[in-house]
Amino acid sequence: MANTIIGSSIVIDGEISGDEDLVIQGTVKGKISLKESLFVEASGVVEADIEVQNVEIGGRVTGNIAATDKVELKADCRVVGDVRAPRILIADGASFKGNVDMDVKER
Amino acid sequence: MATNDQINIIGKGITIRGSLTGAGDLVVEGRVEGQVNLKNHLTIESSGIVEADIRADDLTINGTASGNIDAITKVSINQSAKVNGDIKATRVVIEDGAVFNGSIEMDVKLPDDI
């Protein structure tokens, strides 16, 4: 699986786009738009608006999230921003502040 | 896992626009535009395209790079590489088959009488 890993020592300020899975362990500021899945791991810090298919968050995210499929907030994540997706999961222990919008028109 | 010598990969399907800073090794198979500032080794794979000013410790280019390159130790431009820009490094290696346009400044002490 040729996926992309932004390691914990990396800081990106700008825009990330693409059509494959992305794992963030470092810091990303700006904007992320992907056609596949995004994984923000526990060490990951994202200050960006996110447009993806799937996103799994275990770290910190500040920004609005729009997913075409699913948003998963795992335990111990911290998310501030509005979330829009047809499926949204929030695990016990996650902290989240923002609006949730599941009212996505059927595909 | 969170050590400074971990490997970071920018995969084929990914484009980054903006600045990228950090420690650790970085492998670019996708596209990076803007600025790259790295404490360790940067590898641009043959599918990788970097349109950025690059600062790194050392650099291996198999793909396409345009922009100025500032390396502390070494720049290797391999056979499949296409590079446009100025290079500053202590050691620069250009393989047969590589395409390079630009100037090279090696940090060489010239004799005083030149």
Helix content of chain A: under 10%
Characterize the biggest β-sheet of chain A. Answer: 13 strands, parallel
Instruction: Give me the number of helical elements of chain B.
Output: 0
How far apart are the first and last residues' alpha carbons of chain A, in Å? 28 Å
Overall mean confidence score, pLDDT of chain A: 92
Tally of individual domains of chain B: 1
Derived from helix and strand composition plus strand pairing, the structural class of chain B reads mainly beta
Return the string of H and E elements of chain B.
EEEEEEEEEEEEE
Task: Explain this structure.
The complex is a heterodimer of chains A (107) and B (114). Chain A has one domain (4-99). In chain A, strands 1, 2, 3, 4, 5, 6, 7, 8, 9, 10, 11, 12 and 13 form a 13-stranded parallel sheet that branches. Chain A starts with a strand and ends in a 6-residue tail after the last strand. Chain A has no helices and 13 strands. Chain A is mostly beta strands. Chain B is an all-beta fold and 114 residues long. Chain B has one domain. Chain B has no helices and 13 strands. In chain B, strands 1, 2, 3, 4, 5, 6, 7, 8, 9, 10, 11, 12 and 13 form a 13-stranded parallel sheet that branches. The model of chain B has no long low-confidence stretch (mean pLDDT 89). Classes of the chains: A mainly beta (107), B mainly beta (114). The A-B interface holds A 2-22, 25-26, 30, 36, 43 and B 1-2, 4, 6-24, 26, 29-30, 34.
